[in-house]
Amino acid sequence: MFKTLIPATLIAISGTMAAAEEVHVYNWSDYIDPALLQKFEDQTGIKLVYDVFDSNEVLETKLLSGSSGYDVVVPTGSFLERQIQAGVFQKLDYSKMPNSKYLWDKIKERTAQYDPGNQYAVNYMWGTTGIGINDEKVKEVLGADAPVDSLSLVFDPKYMKKLQSCGVMMLDAPTEMIPAALRYLGEDPNSKDPKVIEKAEPVLEAIRPYVRKFNSSEYINSLANGDICVAFGWSGDILQARDRAAEAKNGVTISYHIPKEGALMWFDMMAIPADAPNPSGAEKFINFMMDPENIAAASNYVNYANGNKESQKYLDKSVIDDPAIYPPAATMDNLYTVTAYPPKVKRIVTRLWTKVKSGT
Amino acid sequence: MNLRRFILIAVPYLWLVALFLVPFLIVVKISFSSAAISMPPYTPTFSLTQGWAGIENFFSQLSVDNFVFLTQDDLYWKAYLSSLQIAAISTVLTLIVAYPMAYGMARAPDEWRPTLLMLVILPFWTSFLIRVYSWMGIISDQGLLNQFLMWLGIIAEPLHIMNTSKAVYLGIVYTYLPFMILPIYAALEKMDDSLGEAAVDLGASRLSSFWLVTVPMSRPGVIAGCFLVFIPAIGEYVIPQLLGGSNTLMIGKVLWTEFFSNADWPLASSVAVVLLLILIIPIMLFQRNQQKNEEAGR
Amino acid sequence: MAQAKPKIVFDPWNDPKAKPLIECRGITKRFGDFTAIDNIDLNIYEREFFALLGPSGCGKTTLMRMLAGFEAPSEGAITIDGQNVADVPPNKRAVNMMFQSYALFPHLSVWENIAFGLKRERASKERIEERVSEMLRLTRLEKFARRKPHQISGGQRQRVALARSLAKAPKLLLLDEPLGALDKKLRQDTQFELMDIQERTGTTFVIVTHDQEEAMTVASRVAVMNNGVIMQVATPADIYEQPNSVYVADFIGDVNILEGNASPGPDGPENAVQIHYAEGEPPVRAVANAPIAQGSRVSYAIRPEKISVGFEPDPDRANHAQGRVIDIAYLGNVSTYRVELPGGKVISATMTNARRLERRAFTWEDEVWLSWTQTAGIVLES
């Protein structure tokens, strides 16, 4: 949350002209190949002001306050859904964005549940929420037959108790954790029924004492430098940790696993705020990012899958063939999605989460 | 009243009205609203376009539901209590660390004092966040402290300090230390050296001279320092968020959750209003203490 | 002046059998390169009211702080009541000090301030009550017992400080510029009060002051200090009338100093001497304390009040000089005339104003005669 303030150095790439047209983009941190930013400026002559966040909540608050000053923002699907209801966004004019023809149907189908008809947003990246492990340490603690590809690794106190010694972190995001706990129980992860949702509480409370911290960004570093051995987090982040550890040559090897019970599939969506100062610049940026080569470069850089079918030609083999990034069809079918909670249920969800975290 | 005088008085008041009173009134107003899926995410919003009817309509829609809700869920008062407790413990710890430092500074040779004072103030010149992040680098499991202790062979396993309440106390003590040192130092520094000599001359040992004279003399500084640490520590958010574990329950975090996670600005506002009401008590005590000191000041 | 009753003379320093309460033997105190006190020997007797007088920086405060125990001498030994106090810390000495700033504890009431020392020696409750009441009575502070120091006047604070330092009935009370913070009128009243209290309690007082009038008023003996050295120790009258050096003569009161070559005689009493102080002026006829060698360089010190001013030389006095009035300082009871001799030398003479102002005899530019007796001044060998 506040962590953004440090790495969020406003990557304002200096334009050539002083009074040049500007487009302000607000995206997740560590979520693009910086070379693309320069490329966009060179191609369009528009000065790109690129700012980053690391929590949907921060983004949402800025959007709901109005006059955020951003032209393109990238909320996650379930947040997008709620924001559309609040009237935050303007409809996209696809005629101005010819690259939209490259979008991947399979993904469009799924994002339509947040944004019926995909009227307001197009997919930027998508990924799964799963388990990242430090291979050696987990083996050391649990032995060779550790259920690393199962939710029971993180939701069964039997394992968690042992993993506690080498450190476990989980996302501080009830909208991720509660569906996962429900899935572990065999319930509908997308349930909006408070009675069903409450079933997640004992599961989470049972493992709570063994979780070092609930946080949505620190686990990348902690996993990479060996401070923790298990993280329940976002696929690309864990893969990033994997790469960082490999670069550091610190003897840590990280791997990402999509639980066999199924994993949450999420979508980060590019959208244009209703009060965007430069909507046409925003369209140009979105169109630029829908260019198959460009979005492929981004995916190659951040290890996340994108919603652009055509781009798959340009993806590195290590990306397109990594089942952790582009899961095979069978796994794909096992992924689930969740939609936004109605306000009353949302309160129950966050309250439950607070109770789990703090014991109150 | 002449114009100059009027301006002199008006400027600070305008400042207060513009930067404290108006924002606070807005927060109070929001606290009586209800959450909604809209921009901004609450109703009613104040609009003069409908004239008097609009204003009437606005007031009729305000409610105290949020304040009632705060009493119904034990989360809130537990968070308030926990914040008070953490703030109180931190204050005591800060005092324990700060007093010897302030005492040492006040007793240091005159020519050293500006340097020592500067060393206390110097950290303020660095971003608070960077300093907190440095602590993360020091106390994390693979951090400098653990590496050092393990290198010395004092410990075999890293100490878990990071993400525990110990780290929160460490962070608060570190961050607020100057607020405690400076008033105590100011009190001790203006203390006449001959008071201590007089006590010794009258038969007190060095230690009892310290307890009977130095400590009571520094009391106003200690009280001021305690308030300066206690009051902001209650609402502290960044330190528990960055250094603390998930189970560190503080009202600042609850407020954050209401505001950001639930997007329930009205409830978040009422949490803030109640927090301010709670803070008013120590703030008023602090003011009284300051006033008393001024009156007794020689 | 005729004494109404015979008074027993208090002068233990003249009694070779008397044992001093305080003996300083060869005391030297150095702070780094700076020598604050230079090889001082000093005896102070019981019941004495002893003044250390000197300009600031002369070492008087350092000497006092060594008596209190806050400083240790670099060399030499201090004995108090026969005991070498080198290893006795200040809180174990039967010596109390009244600080220049008073050093009253601001958080304690007057009563508690006075009781502070008694509580430290774990006196019984009754004893403390009794002793504090006694001190409050002595210093007339009964009404202010419950007040805090900042709620009383400067004079009252001074008395609290005195009461507090006397409460433990010390053998020796040190007073560091005790009256420095008071205004002139209050200071004079308080001087007499201090003397009264000193007499009533029988405590030995050592006062440090830079105010010569104060020292002369209160003290039984005065030590004049300069640059870490004691110049003279004597009774106030001796200090005034028999200064042993130009420094002391000049430091205490007003004095005219005439420098010249001495020649004995020509007639008159033993050790009579003539001092040739200026071309064209008759030599001053004086009497030295000891024989003076022919032609030795001497200073002649004469107080202004010993010189009379007249239109004619006074035939009863041995010395005369004619000059012109250049300045008159009217002080009410007396007037000081500054008279310039033809050689340019200016001499001050003080006359009592027996008459009203308009009838005054001399005025500016008047040619007058100064006359003084042979024994009026002091001959100091340079």
Write structural notes for this entry.
The complex is a heterotrimer of chains A (360), B (298) and C (382). Chain A is α/β, with parallel strands linked by helices and 360 residues long. Chain A has helices at 34-44, 56-65, 77-85, 105-111, 135-142, 152-155, 157-163, 174-185, 194-197, 200-207, 219-224, 235-248, 279-289, 292-302, 317-320, 329-334, 343-358; strands at 11-12, 22-28, 47-53, 72-73, 121-134, 168-170, 213-214, 230-234, 254-257, 264-271, 305-306. Chain A folds into 2 domains: 2-127 and 266-329, D-Maltodextrin-Binding Protein, domain 2, CATH 3.40.190.10; 128-264 and 338-358, D-Maltodextrin-Binding Protein, domain 2 (3-Layer(aba) Sandwich), CATH 3.40.190.10. Chain B is an all-alpha fold and 298 residues long. Chain B has a single domain (65-296), classed as MetI-like (MetI-like fold), CATH 1.10.3720. In chain B, strand 1 (34-35) and strand 2 form a beta hairpin. The mean pLDDT of chain B is 88. Chain C folds into 2 domains: 12-250, P-loop containing nucleotide triphosphate hydrolases (Rossmann fold, 3-Layer(aba) Sandwich), CATH 3.40.50; 254-381, OB fold (Dihydrolipoamide Acetyltransferase, E2P), CATH 2.40.50. Chain C is built from 8 helices and 20 strands. Chains in contact: A-B, B-C. The A-B interface holds A 1-3, 5-6, 55, 57-58, 60-61, 63-66, 82, 85-88, 167, 172, 174, 208, 211-215, 222, 225-227, 343, 346-347, 350-351, 353-355, 357-360 and B 35, 37-41, 73-75, 78-79, 82, 129-130, 133, 140-142, 160, 163, 238, 241-242, 245-249, 254, 256-257, 259-264. Chain A: Residues 1-19 form the signal peptide. Chain A: It comes from Thioclava dalianensis. Chain A: Its main location: periplasm. Chain A: It is found in: Periplasm.
